[in-house]
Specification:
By secondary structure, this protein is of the alpha/beta class. Helix content is 30%, strand content 23%. The strands form 4 sheets. It has a 5-stranded mixed beta barrel. A 4-stranded mixed sheet has the order 12-14-16-17, covered by helices on one side. A two-stranded antiparallel ribbon has the order 5-11. Helix 4 packs across helix 7. The chain is globular and about 70 Å long. The termini are far apart.
């Protein structure tokens, strides 16, 4: 059982939710104007973004929850999350992948901690001072967690660890199949692989091909990389200075303006100069002390139609109808979603995706769903954004 979080420790917990993606693999349900994190896929009355924010409330004060998103989505964020203040929505003026996204957030948090200490410039903060200590959870906005009680217990274990160690910590899930859409974490030890154990990491591998994914799955040495991370502010600042000095230098120029009204203008000018690189490639593959919590709380990153199919309620022929009305005849293994009030009659179809949203209808084999991103790019180019 994880230790409870006292009031003072809770005030030093922050959550950074990454919500700037367009979710192109869920096209046409996910569109540029309303990406998947703003959608209610399961009819719960909450979008994926709202569900994500709500699951962190017991661990993090609402004022310490930050959303990093594209500037295009700020108004939509505030519409869906009216309890957040505008300054809690950190707007990227350009898409630069996850490493600059996280660097922006930690620079903003550094500014908050410095001002809480009465220090004007981040450059003057002693990050070895206990008063500057902050724990940070980084999570995507579009994951589904089926057992939130177990998720909270796992995060408590992680928060306790990073409060005492300068490790970079990720949550790893036991693979259930040789999946090519997830990153993999190789463990550095065979023993101790039990739930909520904190284990050393040997290697990260991003989205392997099917043959390699089968090797990883069968070896028993690998976990899926959930994309949920924990670290303290001192450790992640040091990691960026060591492994991504170009990004660190960009934000160092803003030491006196972060978490002030001048931050927005600084970000508009400087953020686009950051290189585009993922957190995994830029930091985690290079850092020395990276650890993983072996977790099991019913996780899905909802990255593809196939993941929705896996989670959906199936009829006797393993068909899934998410929204709208569908009649199936001599069909099996399909996933269908339609606007409410619409009807689809599906006859003689096997293992297909049928998705209608607005002026677009997609019909695609489930086994080819990884090509949807390329299809979206071609549609964008050919029709000048009309259908994306």
């Amino acid at each position: 059982m994880a230790k409870p979080i006292d009031k003072l420790a809770r005030e030093r917990n922050f959550c950074v939710i990454m919500a700037g993606g367009v979710g192109s693999r869920f096209w046409p349900e996910s569109r540029n104007s309303r990406p998947k994190q703003f959608l209610d896929f399961f009819g719960t009355g909450q979008s994926l973004l709202q569900m994500t924010v709500n699951r962190f409330r017991d661990l993090v004060p609402i004022e310490n929850i930050l959303i990093v998103t594209n500037v295009l989505y700020k108004d939509l964020m505030l519409e869906q999350l009216p309890e957040l203040k505008p300054e809690q929505i950190l707007c990227e003026p350009a898409r630069r992948n996850t490493a600059p996204c996280v660097a922006y957030a930690i620079s903003h948090i550094s500014g908050i901690m410095g001002r809480r200490m009465g220090i004007k410039s981040i450059a003057d903060v002693d990050w070895n001072d206990d008063a500057s200590h902050a724990n940070i959870i980084v999570a995507p906005s579009d994951h589904l967690i089926l057992r939130e009680d177990k998720f909270i217990e796992t995060l408590k274990v992680g928060l306790h660890h990073i409060s005492e160690h300068d490790s970079l910590l990720t949550l790893g899930m036991r693979p259930t199949r040789p999946e090519t859409g997830y990153g993999y974490i190789q463990l550095d030890c065979a023993e101790g692989k039990k739930e909520n154990a904190v284990l050393p990491v040997k290697t990260f591998t991003e989205k392997p091909n099917l043959d390699l994914a089968k090797v990883f799955f069968e070896s028993g040495e690998f976990l899926w990389n959930s994309g949920i991370f924990l670290w303290n502010l001192r450790a992640i600042r040091k990691a960026f200075r060591t492994h991504q000095p170009t990004i660190a230098d960009v934000f160092k120029e803003g030491d006196e303006v972060m978490s002030t009204p001048a931050e927005e203008a600084f970000i508009q000018e400087k953020f686009p100069t950051c290189p585009s690189i993922s957190l995994d490639y830029g930091i985690l593959e290079k850092a020395a002390d990276v650890r993983v919590i072996y977790a099991d709380f019913g996780w899905s990153d909802l990255g593809t139609w196939g993941s929705l199919y896996d989670l959906g309620k199936k009829d006797e022929n393993k068909n899934v109808a998410l929204h709208g009305n569908t009649l199936f005849y001599e069909s099996n293994g399909n996933v269908v979603t339609l606007p409410e009030g619409n009807l689809a009659v599906i006859e003689g179809m096997q293992e297909m995706i049928v998705a209608q949203n607005g002026n677009v209808l997609l019909i695609c084999r489930k086994e080819n769903e990884q090509s949807i991103r390329q299809i979206v790019a071609e549609v964008e180019n050919k029709f000048n954004g009309k259908y994306t």
